[in-house]
Structure formats: structure tokens, C-alpha cells
Amino acid sequence: MTKIVESMDMTVAPPEKEPERQYYFIRKLQLWMEDKKRELGRPLTACVTTFGCQMNARDSEKILGILQMIGYEETDQEEADLVLYNTCTVRENANLKVYGHLGQLKRYKKKNPEMLTMLCGCMMQEQTVVDKIKTSYRNVDIIFGTHNIFKFAELLAMRVFDTSAKKRMIVDVWKDTDAIVEELPIERKYSFKSGVNIMFGCNNFCSYCIVPYVRGRERSREPEEIIREIRELVADGVVEIMLLGQNVNSYGKNLEHPVTFAQLLKQVDEIEGLQRIRFMTSHPKDLSDELIDVMAHSQKVCRQLHLPLQSGSSRLLKIMNRHYTKESYLELVAKIKKAMPDIALTTDIIVGFPGETEQDFKDTMDVIEKVQYDSAFTFIYSKRTGTPAAAMEDQVPEEVVKERFDRLLKRVQEISAEKTQAGGGVVEDVLVEDVNKQETGYVTGRTARNYLVHFPGDASLIGTIVPVRLCESKGFYYYGKQCEQ
Ligand code: SAM
Ligand code: SF4
């Protein structure tokens, strides 16, 4: 890709076609960066901060890939020459965090008026947010949304080469898109593992959730593109991939030649050199027998499944528009456990959905007891304007929600600790991710079941999979000892 970018003809107008159009703007910015470097005696720096889920993390890697190709030096200091926040809006507190950072930025920008500030991601898809930024945070230079991340270089170029005295805030937010632009640079956070988008958007409209409104309708990537990307990642040293989609189980339904997620997984499983496959998120309503079968027969698909419950009450699940009941969820779990008795199950649970009664909550607690999750993300319901649930009367009082949330969290943590305790003593393969920052002489990795393990070792182990005896359980993680291979 570097060669293609460097050979772009800059004497003509930018191409109309993607991704060539973006290559053109990357090249234009590269030439500008060379001048800047000479002028300042250093490259410009860029700080990208990500809020939210794995999807956003992967989007930030795409932005960093473009920034790096332009010649920016990555930094984690928010006093950089370019600061970008990739935002999340799933819960209200995610929005509040971003406003906090924007307040700080005002001070940095006073010190360095040349500083460029950019906002993107889910929060920017909300008109009320963009309006608020336009009036209260005039220091922001560029706002774009979730559908046009691929246009990052073009938007940056618009700003950089704007010679007008009073530069305007650039706002480019699309309501939806069919476009999936492939073949743009990506800068991975980890050399040995990577997320891989298999689809974008969501069609499920769970009544509490803002994602379908800010990420648009479901669009699947062609399986050939996904396989090509994974092969390239493996050739570049990646041993573990995480297939990403809001509901991977509906992958491929809208492709010209439909492909099921299980069929895709089978193809990915056959990629030589790839050692571990994870995926998220799997909606319980359409997790197929075919998928369970592919998982059970694979040596590479990790024995871990994230299966969001949201609530254990069939009554609430109906109002949440989840399309399963407490009973059908438990039957599904039984089927999965029968096929893969060693599987680690994790989940998401919302407490305090409008109208949640003590009996509804008890149903959730009952499912917790029955499934015995290895871990669970527990959330307090957050009212998201524009979703059907936000208009529902009967919002649960804060103190009731808080009390239920504490009860749930306590039990979830107890079960998690019991499961960690029970799983101790055995030898499991661990993918080493990093040196342990707290304990000198230790490294940290994850088992296929996604348990964290700390054990003696050094940086040379990072990115390798080694057998480790899980000697001591510490609640949610283990201390271990590497075994002979
Ligand atoms: N697509 C995934 C699925 O269906 O499980 C989840 C995506 S969402 C980013 C992650 C989790 O956030 C959801 O599973 C849900 O538990 C939680 N969530 C979504 N909307 C929420 C809201 N309004 N309040 C609290 N938690 C919410
Ligand atoms: Fe939100 Fe439901 Fe879509 Fe998940 S499946 S992103 S919870 S609407």
C-alpha cells in the first residue's frame, strides 16, 4: 500500500473512486508533513483516545493506520498536535466523559493554537450532541461519524489546506451507508492479536439500545475479504483473531450469495497458522445448532462464548424486543454446555430497565444461579433519547436500581471466584500479552477460556502460546508457572 500511495499522481484532481481517493489525500498530507518536519525539526504528534467497545477500538486502529502513514508520531499525551476522541454513547456516562475531556482541551488549545481537535464515533451520530459541541465547544475542528471513518484523510486535508483566515468547524456525519471501503492502512495495537470486522451496524432494535440508530443497518463484508484480511494478519504474526459484529449470528444474510456465520467460521478455522479464534457478539435469539457444531469440532475456536442475557425475566425480554424467553435461553445454554462441557460463558446484564419489578430481578438472579457465568458485565439501565424504552413510564427509582445492582454484582463476583477456584491446578495454553506492569519478572496472558494468568517470564514470551499450570486462583485471575513444552 505504501508504494501505491507514494506513486499517486498529485498533478491531477483527486480520484472519485475509493480507496484511491483516500490514497491521494494521504499522499498530499505526507508531502505537507515532510515540510512540517523540516520547519519544526520534529514530526507532528497525534493522540487517539477510544471510548467504548471493540468496534470502536478497531475503528481507532484504522484511524491510527492513516495517521501513521501520513507521518504522525503516536503519543498518549493529550497535549499533542492532533487529538482525536473516538466516542461511545451506549450509556449516558460515556457522553459525560467526553465532555470532561473537551473542557480540558480548551486549555491545551490556548497554549497551542495550531492544535487540531477531532471527534468521531457513535456519539457524533446524535444531532443533539453535534449541536451542543457547535455552541459550547467551538475549539473542535472536525466532527465525523461512524459511517465515514474511511474519509479521515480527506477531512484532515480539508482542514489543513483551508487557507481562509477564519477556519470553520468541519462537520461530516452521515445518517447511514451501504459503503464498505476496504484496503486502507491499519495500525494494530497488538502485533499478535487483532479484531476483524465481519459486519457493521445492527437491525435488532432492542428497545433500550441506541446502537442501531448510530451504527446504521446491518452490512456484512464479503467472506473473501475477511479471509484475505485474516491471511494477511497471520502472515504478519497474528495468532489470535476476534471476529467482530453487533450480532455475528446474523452475518451474511444480506450478501448477494448468503453465507452463514457458521460457514464463515469454518473457513476461518481452515486458515493455516492461525491459532485462536474468538468472536462477539452472539445474540441468543439466532445462535444456530450449526454454529455450536462448528465450535465443538474446532481446535482453534476458543472455548468461550459471550451470550448477552440482558434480563432473566421473559416479561421484560419481550418489552426489550430480545426475541427469546428465560426458558429458551436456559435451553440454549444447556445445549451449548452439552456440546462443550468445558465452555466458559460470559454475559451482559442490565439492571433497572423501565418497569423492572422485584420478581423480574429475581428471574435474572435465578438465571445467574442456573448458568453459573464465568464472568458478567453488569450495567445500570441508562435512558437513551430516541429509543422506545426512553419513552416508557415506570422508570425504576435510583435507590432501588442501586440496591439490585449491588446484589447482582456481589453474586456474579462470587460465582466468578468459585469458578476460578474450581478451574485451578490444571495446565492450560496461555497467549502471553504483556509484561506485568505491577510485578517485575512476571508476564500476563490469557487462556483460551479468556482467564487472565500472571506467571514468571520476560518480554521475549509476548505473542507466544505456552503451557502454564494455573497454581493459585485469586478471585478472577490466576498465578501460574510455565511448564515444559
Ligand atoms: N450487540 C451486542 C448485544 O446484543 O449483546 C451488545 C452491544 S452493546 C454496545 C453492549 C451492552 O451494552 C449490551 O449488551 C447491553 O447490556 C448494554 N447496553 C446497551 N444499551 C444500554 C442502556 N441503554 N443502558 C444500559 N446498558 C445498555
Ligand atoms: Fe443493541 Fe440489541 Fe443491536 Fe446489541 S443486538 S447492538 S443490544 S440493538
Description:
The protein is of the alpha/beta class and 485 residues long. 36% of the residues lie in helices and 20% in strands. It contains 14 helices and 19 strands. It has helices at 2-6, 20-40, 54-70, 92-111, 127-136, 152-160, 211-215, 223-235, 261-269, 289-297, 314-319, 326-339, 358-371, 398-422, and strands spanning 45-50, 73-74, 82-87, 116-121, 142-144, 170-172, 193-197, 199-200, 219-220, 240-244, 276-280, 304-306, 344-351, 375-380, 427-435, 442-447, 452-456, 465-473, 477-482. It has a six-stranded parallel β-sheet, sandwiched between helices. A five-stranded mixed beta barrel has the order 15-16-17-19-18. A hairpin with a 3-residue loop joins strand 18 (465-473) and strand 19. 39% of the residues are buried. The model has no long low-confidence stretch (mean pLDDT 95). It binds S-adenosylmethionine (SAM) and iron/sulfur cluster (SF4). Iron/sulfur cluster is lined by residues 202, 204-206, 209, 211-212, 246-247, 283.
Using brief descriptors, characterize the structure shown.
globular; binds iron/sulfur cluster; six-stranded parallel beta sheet; alpha/beta; five-stranded mixed barrel; single chain
